[in-house]
Amino acid sequence: MSDKPVSDHRASDISRRRLIGTAGAAGAAGLVLGATGGATVYAAAGPGAAPDGKALTSVGSTAVPFHGAHQAGITTPLQARGHLVAFDLAPGAGRKEAAALLRRWSEAARRMTAGRPPADAGGDTGVALDAGPSSLTVTFGFGRTFFGRTGLDARRPAALDPLPDFSSDHLDPRRSDGDLWVQIGADDALVAFHALRAIQKEAGEAARVRWQMNGFNRSPGATAHPMTTRNLMGQIDGTGNPKPSESDFDRRVFVPADGGAEGPEWMAGGSYAVVRRIRMLLDDWEKLARGDQEKVIGRRKSDGAPLTGGTETTELDLDKAGPDGKPVIPANAHARISAPEQNGGAAMLRRPFSYHDGIGADGTPDAGLLFICWQADPLRGFVPVQRKLDRGDALSPFVRHEASGLFAVPGGARDGEYVGQRLLEG
Amino acid sequence: MSDKPVSDHRASDISRRRLIGTAGAAGAAGLVLGATGGATVYAAAGPGAAPDGKALTSVGSTAVPFHGAHQAGITTPLQARGHLVAFDLAPGAGRKEAAALLRRWSEAARRMTAGRPPADAGGDTGVALDAGPSSLTVTFGFGRTFFGRTGLDARRPAALDPLPDFSSDHLDPRRSDGDLWVQIGADDALVAFHALRAIQKEAGEAARVRWQMNGFNRSPGATAHPMTTRNLMGQIDGTGNPKPSESDFDRRVFVPADGGAEGPEWMAGGSYAVVRRIRMLLDDWEKLARGDQEKVIGRRKSDGAPLTGGTETTELDLDKAGPDGKPVIPANAHARISAPEQNGGAAMLRRPFSYHDGIGADGTPDAGLLFICWQADPLRGFVPVQRKLDRGDALSPFVRHEASGLFAVPGGARDGEYVGQRLLEG
Ligand code: HEM
Ligand code: HEM
């Protein structure tokens, strides 16, 4: 089954987008314009019946399979609502408790992503009732500290070594790191909240919430532009992402099936997530004229096309000079210095949520990007690019990195398996 | 043009719901099963063309007219995303500056609700680009303190007298009240955020943000149950609301066209909004067994039907006793003691957003209801009901009122008029 996002074509409406996903999953090659992470549509056109017999429309009835080579929530199309939550193992909890926890979590996720309550026994909050799975995904990751607490130091991937410090960091340790990390995404805010509470409840005595953040993207059907989203600076965001159609997509994003050089073996099919809460200094940003904002990125705001012309998908012409002899895309433009060609091929799959937590203590909007990027190895993805950006990104004066995390996200669970089983029982 | 919500029928999918609204607006009586606040659909089935020529799907392309007898955002179907923001006039700003501000705000709202940028001159953030209006509404109200600051005390409605204290109040004054109040709702989070920033920008030097809150409801299409939403306790919420089909709906919700006894005249067609940020003590609530949760409200969680049987729309049988001789719907059940029959006919239109701001300082979820209720007179709506609830609501141990506001929301602006003009220039 294909497990790629619809990031390389434009579907002109959401139900067509979802339908294409189904067709793709069913293997009807002629229709595979771009698959949607293997989404299943219970009822694509108009109301239909979900497993519980309730009539649903296509947004609610779309389900993203829990099982697969990779965990869901990495190449799944951006969802309208997201929750990030990090946990620390409780004092006294070790490998055994962690294994039981991952087993409970996987089971709850498997059920909820199919539109069912998290457990057979009662006690469900009911918050998701009436809606279908709404493209719910629940993705689990391990932080560096998890391995010491569970006596698994020997299996800790080198890729989890702490990120270097960057000069622009203003990191709040209380909202950074964590033994365990869960990313929840859904196209309905109540479905997402329901999953968050269920995951918290299943943590039981084994783990305690360390930090928790909320985010959002466009609602399905609000735009005919499903390929990329806009961020709160108003830019189209996601254009330069690696495309599933590119031959090196898997190699860049996922640890190879045999563990590969990146290893360890239990990470086969997995990926490393770098999570940064990046505040946008919107009061300052919005004072810039649109032309100056566009020079900061190197792309037009209206349609995301490079300042050197064309459409959103046209390559940047980094050598082109303007009448004044200066490069049209400035030397410090964000899209120039973050591009793989400028970073020895370093690339990552950015899959963010925007966040907005009202007004901050300083009176400015507490809003920005829950930047999440996925790569087979952070040292060939986030790290070199952020190092470069840190030295000379025109965007830097308008953003502030306020929290950071790095998590090893194992491959998808096979039928009957739980996420992380190969680590915890291997 | 009809200006009623779809709260008295079940549309089985969102585009049918929207379509019915359009038909209603066009006056095709046979199709008026329930109008949607006069929503206009640029393209109901599949992609179409919005005013800017972009293809849009039905969620994005739905527009709620700004002009009308009443402001939009009162009987408009619940939107997926909401922002509440209160402003205080800046020191030195008086009636003249307030009139200019309401003129600017109305113009920005009129444009944005039609899917256009807030002003012709540049400087738009671009955050809403690619999406249509997405059912955006922007609703303006005046707080009690507005009238003293603008020398308009003589026109201050008696209905704005401070709400009484309630024993369960834990109100934070920094997040309560305000000279001016703006409610923003949209089915897309970026469209809503865009409108919030535009409204803040247009405030210019005339007014400063006092507080700001974010909320949400179901996404369009996530459920086939458009009549009511669920709240974060998992209950169907909105069932007992006055129905537009009832003969006293207008009288209960809106100040009469001639000002009526409620007066003053400038409030003709207006309504009073009571806004309460009500924290839910979810860690405690979720420990209750489902049966006990249902007794707290008097309705079933699964489908909202009364514990005395039937379906969601069946009347509560308040006299029915169980085998133990006790009333099936307990004496302190929330739906019993808040019902109009128990409160001398007092009724209000509840139109809330849920909120979730992560984890609070006390480690429990900072989540609950942005309770907003609309009535022609708070003394015949919110006040008597909340007095009763305050004395004996079974829900009280699970909620905490953390902020409060009361605002006079004038009638809708006529073409060429701005909201509040009859107050400020009358
Ligand atoms: C709030 C912070 C940020 C904003 C608003 C932002 C915005 C953008 C925008 C508008 C683009 C151009 C469109 C696109 O290709 O998506 C872009 C490209 C990109 N950004 Fe960022 N970005 C931010 C932070 C970062 C960070 C922290 C990294 C990694 C360290 C990063 C890496 C990239 C990469 C790799 C590209 C694609 C370049 C290419 O190959 O064309 N960005 N970003
Ligand atoms: C977080 C706080 C609250 C929650 C969770 C809540 C929940 C509910 C629920 C589940 C119902 C039954 C379904 C329905 O008719 O909508 C209901 C009914 C009602 N509630 Fe609340 N409520 C809250 C606060 C309030 C407040 C503060 C008031 C007014 C002072 C209020 C007034 C009403 C009214 C008038 C009804 C309808 C009763 C009827 O006529 O059947 N509620 N509420």
Automatic annotation (TrEMBL), chains A, B:
It is found in: Cell envelope. Keywords: Heme, Iron, Lyase, Metal-binding, Oxidoreductase, Peroxidase, Signal. Residues 297-322 are annotated as: Disordered. The keyword Heme applies. It is an enzyme of class 1 (oxidoreductase). Its cofactor is heme b. Involved in the recovery of exogenous heme iron. Extracts iron from heme while preserving the protoporphyrin ring intact. This is Deferrochelatase. It comes from Streptomyces chryseus.
